[in-house]
Amino acid sequence: MAEPGRAHESGTDPTLPALTEFVAVMHRLRTECPWKAEQTHRSLQRFLVEETAETLEAIDAGTDSGEWSHLREELGDLLLQVVFHAVIAEQAGEFDLEDVAAGITAKMVRRNPHVFAPAVDGSQRDLDPAAVNELWQQAKAEEKATLPRRDELPPGLPALLLADKILDRRERSGDPVEVDTTSDDIGERLLALVARAREQGVDPEQALRDAVRRRG
Q: What is the pTM of this model?
């Protein structure tokens, strides 16, 4: 881990914590670099997608090799996208990185009552992962009930992940999707495989990624 006050490669101010220095670097780049100055939230979208994909690949590679320096690098590239968007928003008077961090911190506290809420006879301190996930979903549903309706799933989600989320939503609403395991339609058969993966507690998207990597 980085030591406080160590010399940074950027050379702007080695006395600053690394994250604070990085934000300062991005502010300067937005002022002095013509390309970065003209970027918008929309123009950066494809880079966010690309960096996310490269981070996933670094996780797979690290899992295979046990060496994680590549993931550290890719997380840095992903952090660049987060900070870039936050700096753009700050310059527009919308929000800044502190607001982003405060918002996600508050969300984590709300959605993890088994950690942060007072426990009753310690009952919430000894939960299995499934029970923790159920608490998360309950807190999420309560939050969404107080917000403007926004049920749409991102259209750019990979198809297997999208199917998994839709099946989950329908199950939670009490209206599960009926899948046809005997259909000749490839799409229906894929949907049936996603349903089977859910029954077995398997992430279908990751399972397919792993299978492709084994044969790549």
A: 0.75
